[in-house]
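Database export, one record per block. Field names are fixed; values are copied verbatim from the stored entry.
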Amino acid sequence: MKKIYTFAIVSLLVSGMAAAAGPVEKSLKKAAALPAPVSLPATDVTDEGFTANWKTYPGAESYTVLVYEPEVVSAAGEYSIIEENFNLVNKGSTVEPYFPDEAYISISDLGWTYTPDWTGFYPVFSRGMVSGIIYSPYLDLVHDGGKFTVTFGVTGYSGATVKLTSSGATEETKEFVLVTSGYNELTATFTNGTHDTYLTFVDFGILDDPDNLYSNCYDYLDDIKVTQHLEAGETALRIVDCKESFTTSQEFATLPFRYGATKLAYDVQANIVTFNDPDDPYDYDVEWTPYSDLQYVTLGTQGVTDVKADNATSAEYYTLQGVYVGSEAPAPGLYVVRRGDKTSKEIVK
């Protein structure tokens, strides 16, 4: 996947911590001249998931498979593409941060995010926040000519530097110096959105620190929201899952981030790796094909859709698996909330 392939051998100062990333490729390019893979209909479709399929692509080392919930918007406006507050992170503190043993981890696989495919390289955790080098999921940001806005909060130290990079049609980086010790709300506008854009947050800490007074201080990504303007009739693709496959099918038996959605879609990109020197595993070129056409799939219904409300004004809270919690606001987390004949996903803080 591109977020792994594009690691470079660099030495980054991350809040006083040097972090070396992975290998440099001699060539990294999306080959628009190559034909796109051909997606095939889903099989093994159940109430909970399905298996995505596609035709073999000559020379492909692996395939990137993205799953979405497509939604056609009815009116022009600014729409949320993804929101994450990391409130599910339950280890560490600002006094004693949590450092995982692994250098590269999936934050979402730990059950610490409400949205899929957040990853970290040398991440540092404090409850409800994350620092280090943090990668977002792939986001479909093709609308409005690729222009989109990121609003994010950083809890850290006055004078610290953080950077946010958008990797899309090109690479754009915004640098911020925190003005407040504590919570800082920051906004960045990018213009390079594509079908598979991702964001990278990096905490550089206090750069002018000759006495290393801030070497063990971290600046945490506290929350983040990506919005984009869509016109009426355009389709927003909410990311539901992302996997790398080394065959021509990929099972999505359960989709914990679909939140009751039954109408889904997926597409596939082939990753072509050419090794130039058999004795040097780091000497290789990577090409990425365009994505296949979207393949649509409809799952069965979930239990929450069959629940009746006692009256139109009261709220009923359910877990994402459709289990009734009660009519009073439950513990903090993400819930399905039914009011009358309307159901929505809501975060309880």
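Remark 1: The CA atoms of residues 97 and 126 lie 5 Å apart.
Remark 2: Confidence is low (pLDDT under 50) at residues 5-29, 301-312.
End of record.
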